[in-house]
Amino acid sequence: MIVGQAPAKVILTGEHFVVHGQPALAAAVNLYSKATVRPGVYGIVQISSPELGVKRSYPTRLINTVPSSTHDDSALEPLRLLVGKVLEEAGETDIGLDLEIISQIPVGVGLGSSASTAVSTTAALAEFLNLHFEKNDILKIASVQEKHVHKKPSGIDASTITYGGVLCFRVGEQPIRLQSNDQMSIVIGNTGSSRSTGVLVTNVSKRVAVGDKELTRINESAGNLTLQAVQAYKERDFDRLGQLMCANHELLMQIGVSTTELDTLVEAAMSAGAFGAKLTGAGGGGCMIALSRPEDRTRIADAISSNGGSAYLVELDTLGVRICEDQTDMH
Ligand code: PMV
Fold first, then answer.
1. What number does the ligand 1 atom closest to the CA of 152 have?
2. Residue 185: which H helix or E strand, with range?
3. What is the pLDDT of residues 186-195, one digit of tens each?
4. Biggest CA-to-CA distance, the chain
5. CB contact at 8 A, 289 and 189
6. Which of 329, 312, 261 minimizes the C-alpha distance to 10?
7. Is the CA virtual torsion 218, 279, 113, 329 positive or negative?
8. Angle, helix 197-209 to helix 135-150, in steps of 10 degrees
9. 327 has pLDDT over 90
10. What global pTM score does this model have?
11. Is the CB of 9 under 6 A from ligand 1?
12. What structural domains and CATH numbers belong to the chain?
């Protein structure tokens, strides 16, 4: 049995604008997905997710061609494509295997759950099939699933989750990994409403495509803002980083991806003493994050909870994807 484990991610600055060429700052955090691969019945690939309540078997030979037959198992489609791709890399056409996914990462709320699952699955399968993958190879394959789920992803989710730590990411460039800092505490607030990243990204992209001048201006300011955020992070200037996160939230409000619930949680976190707070991920619901002093994080989490959100106190994950030695369940 092989277990691959991958973290979740939060975006500190630059979501959406990163799709349009700007840099963004992201961090891997310690909520995890785990993919377990066991030998299975010869010629059959079984994929299951107990949390989603779905299990499906595919003939190994046909894994790249059999599409989903029911709405219930459509959630497994991206994983089917991914397994097919890794088996193709390994030249395996008849092997039997069981793949089981479990995850602590809430789905569809901007924490990178689909990218995390893709990355942990790719790592576990590659190990099981003796492919000797480096992180770069895992990222390349996992991006296949991201494209299926999010249509035109920037790649920031899968990159942050694969490498771990804090990354300055720009499409088409090798991400720059910044020195991690344990002085920084992050509190996540989940509004509980899920949404489609693909739809939100498409709406913003349509405005970029027609040359919307306002959006072009905001896009450029967001890029500058991230460069300043990287500098503030490097200098451990969390007051400044917090201010920049708040300014970034304003820009995201201006492009129409925030919601009243997100704004309420951002305000609650700021009133409770956060350095800064903003929505994280595609918006339209989902999660916000607050940057805090370690000693303030419980108060900020309480403020989030009493304003209708679910709060998570998280730490940086500096390792990214790995093959897990401790093979006990997370739940
Ligand atoms: O998948 P989410 O909701 O965490 O959003 C990822 C960040 C976006 O910039 C909105 C999309 C992307 O691919 O960069």
1. 13
2. strand 185-190
3. 999 999 998 8
4. 59
5. yes
6. 312
7. positive
8. 80
9. no
10. 0.94
11. no
12. 2-176 (3.30.230.10), 181-314 (3.30.70.890)
